[in-house]
Amino acid sequence: MVGGVGVGFQRQQFAVLVGGKAHVHEERGALAGIGLLLMVIVFAGAPWMAEMIFQKPLIVEPLRLMAPTIPAISIIFINAELLKGLKKIKLSQIVKGTCLPIATFLICLWLGNKWQLLCISAGYSTSAVLTAILGTYSVLKTSQHRFSYKGAFSSRKLFRTGFPLYNIALLHLLMTWSATI
């Protein structure tokens, strides 16, 4: 599934350049749907994760506060890749790498100087949602004049050529996480 998300990002860039607006919204909707499903799983499974995985029952509320960041972060990365496909690299890097930490810092300052886990979780979740909204606005604003043409886009052909990426992504995840398992 994780490899599929990586291929999904590449499909986003390809869809912007070749496929037209309908394919972009279709791809974004599918990947955001996966994020919403994971958000519901994390929100519902927060008590179990706090007890069984972290052995800290006090982090149930921060986990639930962080659940909305899952689809928001997915949308942030999708929008960043769309902006790359539209040749707006600087805007892509601002959306993907700069807005989220700065917004989190500013929201945490605004919420108070306690710097407790709930404050930081709420600040991060809020800034992730705001960054996702900003990224979506940037994509829509940038792409208004770009989709006046129609093209042929074959998801099946792109998937077949990108299939080795699944194996590479899985091997990378195994190597990265093998020390923590």
Which structural category do the helix and sheet elements fall into?
mainly alpha
How much is the average pLDDT?
A: 76
Largest sheet: none
**Number of beta strands:** 0
How many separate helices? 8
% residues in beta strands: under 5%
Distance separating the two termini? 19 Å
Compute the CA-based radius of gyration: 18 Å
Shape: globular
Account of the protein in words:
The protein has 181 residues and is mostly helical. It is 81% helix and 0% strand. It is built from 8 helices and no strands. The protein has helices at 2-19, 21-44, 46-53, 60-66, 69-85, 89-111, 117-142, 155-177. Helix 1 packs antiparallel against helix 8 and helix 5 (69-85) packs parallel to helix 7.
Task: Present the secondary structure layout.
Blueprint: H1 2-19, H2 21-44, H3 46-53, H4 60-66, H5 69-85, H6 89-111, H7 117-142, H8 155-177
Helix pairs in contact: 1-2, 1-5, 1-8, 2-5, 3-4, 4-7, 5-6, 5-7, 6-7
